[in-house]
Amino acid sequence: MHDYTPRAGLSVDSRLAELLESQVLSPLGRDADAFWQGFADLLASFAPRNADLLAKREDLQAKIDAYHTERSGKPHDAAEYEAFLREIGYLVPEPADFQIGTQNVDPEIATMAGPQLVVPILNARFLLNAANARWGSLYDAFYGTDALDAPAARPGGYDEERGAAVIARGRRFLDEALPLVDQSWADLKDEHDGKLQDESQWVGHTDKGLLFKNNGLHIEVVFDRESPIGKTDKAGIADINLEAALTTIADCEDSVAAVDGEDKLLAYTNWLGIIRGDLEESFNKGGKTLTRKLNGNKSYKDGSGNEHSLSGRSLMFVRNVGHLMTNPAILLPDGSEIPEGIMDAVFTSAISTLDVEGHAKYGNSKHGSIYIVKPKMHGPEECAFTNDLFNAVEDLLGLARHTIKVGVMDEERRTSANLGACIEAVKDRIVFINTGFLDRTGDEIHTSMRAGPMMRKGEMKGSDWLKAYEARNVAIGLKHGLSGKAQIGKGMWAAPDLMGQMMVEKIGHLRAGANTAWVPSPTAATLHALHYHQENVFDIQKDLPEPAGLDALLTIPLAKGTNWSDEELREELDNNCQGLLGYVVRWVDAGVGCSKVPDINDVGLMEDRATLRISSQHLANWLLHGVVTEAQIMDSLTRMAAKVDAQNAGDPTYMPLIGNEDAPAFQAAKDLIFKGAAQPSGYTEPLLHEWRRVKKAG
Q1: CA 258, CA 264: separation in Å to the nearest integer?
Q2: pTM for this entry
Q3: Deepest of 68, 366, 371, 454, by most Cβ within 10 A of its Cβ?
């Protein structure tokens, strides 16, 4: 339940009002009454515009639905289809050539290439771990994962054989990244031995050893003959620390379940702790109470003895929610809920102003910038709306123009098809674009829901539109000057336990021209950092081709036929239903928006709402076109509910799906499928929020 406080005609959750006034506005020296009046004025202007943009989405979708319905049974005419999309305003003309003008961007974003973490903002421990993942132990990363090609560690303490394999692999990395003259790192006798082929790679001395740099990333070789590892090592090397997660996105969106003022309070409180530098979290591990807090900086001395400092933490973005959802944390004068994206823009920016104005222990941006990732925007009008909104937030908070930077997630079809125009709409504040296979596929299916049955989900990864989407995103970003000024990112490696496979495959993101890519854990960030030592992304970007046209991108991923066998249909249904139930039961019952969820083969995958969107839309599409029946889906849901129950059997807080089919979790799963075709853009949030609130209300 909300306890509301009146503020300038708004009804504000009392705890949110208290947080903002006492912890943010007061330290900033801002007048609270003036702030709330300014916020109310901003909402009076932007809330109706937000609603109009959502209505435009629905209008375009209705026209596209009608187009496909009228042509049912006829062959698809690609030229006619593209002309139709232009006629209704879904496709806009390409902008005249331009270059982005973003200024005051930190090097972690602009001129360095490396891994990126995305972390649920509601989980303080995960948030701290991610922020502290700027540096990671390569020895630990290899010892504890399957990225090392060696027998697994034997249980019962340190396995010296495994350890020796880790050390040998570490030396191989040093030979590749920091080659010596006429010898291997394995031959060194101590830290004074050996000479670099490129002496400019040596940066200085830390209190632990020697600091080097390769492809813009730092490497710390730790020498310590007193440590358990160092005392058995010929050269006394105890570890290799890599600069890893250059940037982290604290996520208010797809990886959290935030449905009311209580949830938003936790989100903003955790962001405040990250920005101020005082966030802490205590937890029990092995019978001991441990406390996590933010790491300090790493100091070193150069060859002349001068002191320098490197950040010990990731540079932090915050991902606001998109334009669709509203939240009861604040009510407008007419009693309606506030557009949540507008609330996020104001609250996260106000908190970040503490960093801009020097009220932070460590500081986030050294250039006085605020970094916000904006997801789920459809086309350039919605990007322009975000640009105008950020202008208004800057004015409200007394910030210089373009202090707030934006990351545009290219995860909706109308954005992909008009990406140049989308970038132009935010050209003086853009610092990030990326691709996201799952959300983008969900929108691909929903946009063409009535064109016919879609190909199987697994086949999507080889489809024409997806290849075009991934390549065009990078090419369009480069064409408009993002290289050296902004991040061009690629999506998540979802399997945190399959690091060996990640090390083989994820280097492809760098070779495609991405100067950052998402990984699921600090350990994965340390391992993925090796790829950026192997490949210089900025050199790769210079040789990539110009963007291709729209033909392949607009190819609808329709099935070539629907004569799948009963076994194939059952396999597809089970895969979708199991993934959907495994995620929904945690979201609705536990309020967990991102966790390692076992898939149908019991492989743990880091799942968020995007996974749900593709599964629910795929099932809704097949149901709409009669590929499967409601009875077949219910049969699969029931069988997969039993499987998900078995997978969660070890959790004492878990409420089984079987026997509780009328409870919110199972009902939410059914709604996501059977009401899927009618959901706005195929999004899962409206139904999930509705059922989560039912669950929270008891």
Answers
A1: 6
A2: 0.98
A3: 371
Residue 225, annotated ligand binder?
Answer: no
Q: How far apart are CA 469 and CA 624, in angstroms?
A: 26
429 assigned to a ligand binding site: no
Name beta bridge partners: 249.
118, 317
Element (H or E) spanning 165, and its range? helix 160-177
**How many angstroms separate the CA atoms of 382 and 426, rounded?**
10
pLDDT average, residue stretch 288-315 = 96
CA nearest to 57, candidates 683, 684, 638: 683
Q: What is the pLDDT of residue 180?
A: 98
Q: Which of 614, 539, 485, 20 is nearest to 261 (CA)?
A: 20
Identify the burial level of 205 via C-beta atoms within 10 angstroms of its C-beta, where 0-12 means exposed, 13-18 middle and 19 or more buried.
Answer: middle
**Residue among 608, 613, 645, 671 flagged as catalytic:** 608
- Would the annotation count 472 as a binding residue? no
Instruction: Say which of 162, 169, 319, 413 is annotated catalytic.
Output: 319
Q: Is 436 annotated as a binding residue?
A: yes
In angstroms, the CA 223 to CA 308 distance is 20
Would you call 351 exposed, middle or buried from its count of C-beta atoms within 10 A (0-12, 13-18, 19+)? buried
d(CA 447, CA 417): 13
Round to whole Å and give the CA distance between 525 and 149: 18
Task: Return the residue matching tokens 């996974």.
Answer: 611
Q: Is 608 known to be catalytic? A: yes
Domain spans, the chain: 566-696
- Give bridge partners of residue 598 from the DSSP assignment: 604
Q: What is the band of 286 on the pLDDT scale with cuts at 50, 70, 90?
A: confident
Note the pLDDT tens digit of each residue in 18-68. Answer: 999 999 999 999 999 999 999 999 999 999 999 999 999 999 999 999 999
Would you state the structure tokens that stand for residue 383, as one six-digit string? 């990007």
Residue 437, marked binder: yes
* CATH fold for the domain made of 566-696: Malate Synthase G; Chain: A; Domain 4 (1.20.1220)
376-405: burial string, b at 16+ Cβ within 10 Å, e else: bbbbbbbbbbbbebbebbbebbebeebbbb
Nearest to 377 by CA among 328, 456, 439, 429: 439
112-125 pLDDT tens trace: 999 999 999 999 99
520 is in an annotated binding site: yes
CA atoms 294, 300, 306, 309: torsion sign: negative
3 has pLDDT over 80:
yes
- In whole angstroms, give the CA distance from residue 622 to residue 579: 17
CA–CA dist 214, 533 (Å, integer): 6
246 annotated to a ligand binding site: no
Sheet holding 10-13, edge to edge: 4-7, 10-13, 326-331, 337-339
Determine whether the annotation assigns residue 276 to a binding site: no
Question: What is the C-alpha to C-alpha distance for residues 130 and 682, in angstroms, rounded to an integer?
Answer: 30
pLDDT at 372: 99
Tokens of 351: 């908190």
Distance, CA of 38 to CA of 59 (rounded, Å) = 32
- Nearest of 222, 192, 230 to residue 206 by alpha carbon: 222
In 201-302, beta strands by DSSP E: 202-206, 209-214, 217-223, 237-243, 247-251, 280-285, 288-293, 298-301
292 assigned binding-site residue: yes
Beta-strand ranges (E) seen in 334-493 are 337-339, 370-374, 404-410, 430-435, 487-490
Residue type, 385: F
Q: Report d(CA 105, CA 98) in Å as an integer.
A: 19
- Report the largest interatomic distance among the alpha carbons of the chain, rounded to a whole angstrom: 77
Residue 319 in marked binding region: yes
Q: Smallest Cα–Cα separation from 83: which of 96, 71, 67, 65?
A: 67
